[in-house]
Write a structure and sequence with these properties.
Blueprint (H helix, E strand, L loop, with lengths): L1 E8 L3 H8 L3 H13 L4 E5 L7 H15 L4 E4 L3 H9 L7 E7 L1 H11 L5 E8 L7 H17 L7 E4 L11 H15 L4 E2 L13 H14 L4 E4 L4 H13 L7 H8 L6
Organism: Clostridium magnum DSM 2767
GO molecular function: methionine synthase activity; methyltetrahydrofolate:corrinoid/iron-sulfur protein methyltransferase activity
Pfam family, one: Pterin_bind
Length: 266
């Protein structure tokens, strides 16, 4: 399972304040905590600062890279901001978040990831808008994967995001997403997935509980990447258990290792 720690996002009040004040220690501490909790990548997002985004994103990447030994997930639709972030990146191959079939976004981000070893999150979205059904997601995924591969992006470096939508607005949004994961996994066994979970429970009570169950259902169908809060021990424990039950944990070694390290919290 690929875990992207989601906590360094300028939309979070304290993070936004730390960015404005250039509080390096606060940002570094959040990065360290996420790495220690099991994150494979640290997401960095300065999107609320429209004019200053390139400068702030570069600053975030620089500080996170000084604090941890894992790559960043550089999160912006702006090619200018992405390039500034990449210039400050020093450890491993970062993940670019994100490209889609929206023409302007596709053209800008493709110019960065073409013929590189960068990882790239590919949103199953086009100029027609958000997909509603499994078939719409699969169709966009097919176009994205084939186009990226033709442009020198390795299939194993593509992280498809089928896009989670609120179950409270349409009863089918949960199962359509999960079925799309299964279909895409069968069609493209080499690609990976990456998605955020919180949209599924938007507007509903007990959101963490719903998010956790939704994650386990999707993992059973082939989901292998999540953007989550790795400091949420219950969520991380459920991910480990779900992978074990889905046959992705040989001899239950990851489960046993987590148990010995007392990572489970229920």
């Amino acid at each position: 399972m690929y875990i992207v720690g989601e906590l360094i996002n300028a939309s979070r009040k304290l993070v936004g304040q730390a960015i404005r004040e250039q509080n390096s220690e606060y940002i570094k501490q959040i990065a360290k905590e996420q790495e220690e909790a099991g994150a494979n990548y640290i997401d960095v997002n300065a999107g609320i600062f429209v004019e200053e985004e390139p400068e702030y994103l570069e600053w975030l990447v620089k500080n996170v890279q000084e604090a941890v030994n894992i790559p960043c997930c550089i999160d912006s639709p702006s090619s200018v901001a992405l390039e500034r972030g990449l210039a400050a990146h020093t450890k491993g191959f970062p993940m670019i978040n994100s490209i889609s079939l929206e023409k302007d976004r596709y053209d800008q981000v493709l110019s960065i990831v073409r013929n590189t070893d960068l990882k790239v999150v590919a949103l199953c979205m086009s100029d027609k808008g958000m997909p509603q059904t499994r078939n719409e997601r699969v169709l966009i995924a097919d176009q994205l994967v084939n186009s990226l591969v033709k442009n020198g992006v390795k299939a194993e470096n593509i992280f498809l995001d089928p896009l989670v939508q609120p179950i409270g607005t349409n009863d089918t949004f949960g199962i359509e997403f999960i079925d799309a994961v299964e279909d895409i996994r069968k069609a493209f066994p080499e690609v990976h997935f990456m998605c955020g979970l919180s949209n599924i429970s938007f507007g509903l009570p007990e959101r963490k509980y719903m998010n956790s169950i939704f994650a386990t259902m999707a993992i059973a169908k082939g989901l292998d990447g999540l953007m989550v809060n790795p400091l949420d021990k219950k969520m991380m424990a459920n991910i480990i258990v779900a992978e074990t039950l889905a046959g992705k944990d040989k001899s239950c070694m990851k489960y046993l290792k987590a148990f010995r390290k007392k990572k489970f919290e229920f």
